[in-house]
Amino acid sequence: MILIKNLSYLIDKDLKVYENCDVLIKKEEDGIKKIVGKNLIEKENLNKSDLKIIDGKNKAGMPGLVNTHTHIPMTLLRGIADDMRLEEWLREKIWPNEAKLTKEDVYYGSLLGCLEMLRFGVTIFNDMYFFAEKVAEATKEIGLRGVISFPIIDVGTPECENRDKLIRMAENFIKKYKEDKLIKPAIAPHAPYTCSEETYKECKEIADNYGTLLHTHLSETRYEVVEMENKIGLRPIEYLEKIGVLDNNVIAAHCVWVTKEEVRKLAKHKVKVSHCPISNMKLASGGVMPLIEMLNDGVEITIGTDGVASNNNLDMLEEIKVCSILHKAHRWDATVGDIDTVLKMAFNSDALGIENNDIVLIDLTAPHLRPIHNIKSNIVYSANGNDVDTVIANGEVLMENKRFKCIDEKFLDKLYEKVDKIKEKFSC
Ligand SMILES: C[C@H]1O[C@@H](n2cnc3c(O)ncnc32)[C@H](O)[C@@H]1O
Ligand SMILES: [Zn+2]
């Protein structure tokens, strides 16, 4: 059992704030149980020798951050191609370099990505990358929880060039992990411009049969929308609706270029949207995701960083601040993207079908986090990922006082050496 004693502030999933409390975390057969109150040792009659005690003084606790769209192994491609728009970035830089990746490279890139997320308080994530088994393996080793989706592209991926075979591999991947405690497998047709109607339909059938999510990029750029309108006379969301893919098991990343009518379609089919403001701005995807219209129509919106090659980090605290201020600037309205709205999106793991029972502690002993008029304000507008001090995920202390507990830290040097070596095979 873990006891956080004298926690200065606790923000719960419903964004209620408690002050000066203890939090007891018990890992039981049927899940994680949490008790919040004062003087829990006495009240719950706890034996100190059964407890891992964490000092909560000058710390703020909150649920684990949830990154709902990323490509974790792309940590390997950090900084390889900046200041380019999506289409050229993908075709000229990212895909040619990804073609050189082996499954071992993806494993090390995933470890690096998981440690980066952990360092920044992200405990649950939704990934889409080649060699998904290696992403799953690294995730389990670090102890995070993730929806790991197996990507499909019609022309093939670095893992396999044959689409039919890829679909069978995706199904086997789902079978292998479907009972796993930390991993929820899923399938990911990459985007409407890389996957045919047949591919989307087959992926949807697999997602339905196995009860998994279908993760896809959707309406990310104006180019994507115009290209589709020219080819088939439909916008990407209209097209996916027409072929029967839109559903409540779909999680769609980006959804920037979306009309009001399409927002209604997303809401009608209960599609979950992963909003990736930094990646959209950096890749100059143009436009801004219609947050207000989506919220007004009841679309479930979550937040993602996208991959490190378009962000260029996995700092979800940075992402929520940018999300908030982007929409204020865009709408000339300071009330838009308010503190509670962005925090709710950042803690939302329900969209992934995972319960967020994790706790992240922020160290408040830093000049930029004092004084504290409103702890939620300091977290959204003043903090960043480096302020994360301790992470308890799935009932385990994975990081304490900014030190990784899930690995021997001596391994970090070896990991950095490995990724430096992998770096040599890429060309900028
Ligand atoms: C899984 C593949 O998806 C690629 N990717 C990474 N970021 C984006 C994005 O913003 N839009 C479309 N595709 C993206 C990644 O490089 C892999 O090739
Ligand atoms: Zn992406």
From TrEMBL:
Entries under Gene3D superfamilies matching the protein: Metal-dependent hydrolases, Urease, subunit C, domain 1
Q: Where is the Amidohydrolase-related domain?
A: 62-397
The EC number on file is 3.5.4.41, 3.5.4.31, 3.5.4.4, 3.5.4.28
Entry keyword annotation includes Hydrolase: yes
Pathway entry: Amino-acid biosynthesis; S-adenosyl-L-methionine biosynthesis
According to the UniProt record, what class of enzyme is this? hydrolase
Q: Which reaction does it catalyse?
A: S-methyl-5'-thioadenosine + H2O + H(+) = S-methyl-5'-thioinosine + NH4(+); 5'-deoxyadenosine + H2O + H(+) = 5'-deoxyinosine + NH4(+); adenosine + H2O + H(+) = inosine + NH4(+); S-adenosyl-L-homocysteine + H2O + H(+) = S-inosyl-L-homocysteine + NH4(+)
Q: How is the cofactor bound?
A: Binds 1 zinc ion per subunit.
Q: What does this protein do?
A: Catalyzes the deamination of three SAM-derived enzymatic products, namely 5'-deoxyadenosine, S-adenosyl-L-homocysteine, and 5'-methylthioadenosine, to produce the inosine analogs. Can also deaminate adenosine. The preferred substrate for this enzyme is 5'-deoxyadenosine, but all these substrates are efficiently deaminated. Likely functions in a S-adenosyl-L-methionine (SAM) recycling pathway from S-adenosyl-L-homocysteine (SAH) produced from SAM-dependent methylation reactions.
Summary of subunit composition and partner proteins? Homotetramer.
Q: What is this protein called?
A: 5'-deoxyadenosine deaminase
The record's gene field reads dadD
